Amino acid sequence: MITVPSEAHTQILSAIAEATAGKVVVDTTVSFTESALRFHSGRPERSRTGAAVSAAEEASRLLPRARVVAGFHTVSAPMLADLARPPHGDVLLCGDDEGAKESVAHLVRAIRMRPVDAGPLAHARILEQLPRVLVTINKRYRRRDLGIQIAGLD
C-alpha cells in the first residue's frame, strides 16, 4: 500500500522500485494541497512533468516491474479506524493487470467492503479526483466518514 504525501511520491517510489518488483502495489495517493482543494479551474492537475496523469500512472512508470492498482481513494480513514462499526461503501479499483486487481479485491472483501472494478489504470485520473468531492460533501453535511457506493450492483 502506497500512502504517501503527493509531494514525496516520486522520491519515495523511486527509492522502493527494486523492492516492489513482481509485487502488487496499491497506490492510494491523492493530492490535497491547498490549491488542489480550491480547484477553481476545473482542469486536471498536471504531474511534475506537465502531463495530465494520475499518481497511480506515475507509480506505474516509477515502478516498472510492480503490478500497480489504484484504489481506496474514496474510503474514509476515520471509518476504517472505527473498529466498533462495520466498514461501509465500495472500493473502486483501477488497473491494467487483472490478476493484481483481483488480489486487491480479495483484500477489500477481507475487510468486509465491496470491490468494484473501475477499469484501466488511466481511470485513476478520475478516481483520484473523487476525494475532493467527498471532502466537500463531508463538510456540507458535517460528517467524517462518507464514501462511495455504486447503486445497482447486487
Structure, described:
By secondary structure, the chain is of the alpha/beta class. It has one domain (6-140): Rossmann fold (3-Layer(aba) Sandwich), CATH 3.40.50.720. It is 35% helix and 12% strand. The chain has seven helices and four strands; from the N terminus they run αβααβαβαβαα. The chain has helices at 9-16, 34-38, 55-62, 77-81, 98-110, 124-127, 130-140; strands at 24-27, 67-71, 90-95, 114-117. Strand 3 (90-95), helix 5 (98-110) and strand 4 (114-117) form a beta-alpha-beta unit. The longest helix has 13 residues, at 98-110. The two termini are 28 Å apart.
Short summary:
With 154 residues, the protein is an alpha/beta fold. The protein has seven helices and four strands, in the order αβααβαβαβαα.
